[in-house]
Specification:
single chain, about 140 residues, mainly alpha
Length: about 140
C-alpha cells in the first residue's frame, strides 16, 4: 500500500512540475534597480573593512560585520546613506520612464546598438572625410 500512496504523491508532484514555467527572458537594456541605503553603506564599509582586515577573504564576515554596524547606527548616522539611496532611486525612476516610453514606442533605435556615443561616431565620420580629402 505504500507504493500506491507514493505513486499518487509522485503524480501530484509531477503535475506541479509540469505547470511550473521558466522565467521570462530578461531585457538586457532595462535599467538596474538602485541600491538601498544599506547597500550604499556597504559599498563604503567594504573598503574600510578590507583596509582594517586585509587577510580576511570571507564575504560572509564582511556582510555580518556590516549588518551589525548598520543596526548599531542611529538614524542621523544613516541619513547620508538614505539620501544617496533616494537620489539613486529618483534617477532610476527617470530612466525607467524613458525606458518604458521607448518600449511602448516600439523598442530599439539604431543608436542603442552601438556602445559609442554620437560624438564619437560623428568624429569618426569626420576623420574619414578628411582622409578622403587628403587624397
Amino acid at each position: 500500500m505504500k507504493g500506491g500512496k507514493s505513486t499518487g504523491a509522485q503524480k501530484k508532484s509531477d503535475a506541479k512540475l509540469a505547470v511550473k514555467k521558466g522565467k521570462a527572458a530578461k531585457d538586457p537594456n532595462k535599467p538596474k534597480r538602485p541600491a538601498s541605503a544599506f547597500f550604499v553603506f556597504m559599498e563604503e564599509f567594504r573598503k574600510q573593512f578590507k583596509a582594517e582586515h586585509p587577510d580576511n577573504k570571507s564575504v560572509a564576515a564582511v556582510g555580518k560585520a556590516g549588518g551589525v554596524k548598520w543596526k548599531a547606527m542611529s538614524t542621523s548616522e544613516k541619513a547620508p546613506y538614505v539620501a544617496k539611496a533616494e537620489k539613486r532611486k529618483a534617477e532610476y525612476e527617470k530612466t525607467m520612464v524613458a525606458y518604458n516610453k521607448k518600449q511602448a514606442s516600439g523598442g530599439k533605435e539604431e543608436d542603442d546598438d552601438s556602445d559609442k556615443s554620437k560624438s564619437e561616431v560623428n568624429n569618426e565620420e569626420d576623420s574619414d572625410d578628411e582622409e578622403e580629402d587628403d587624397d
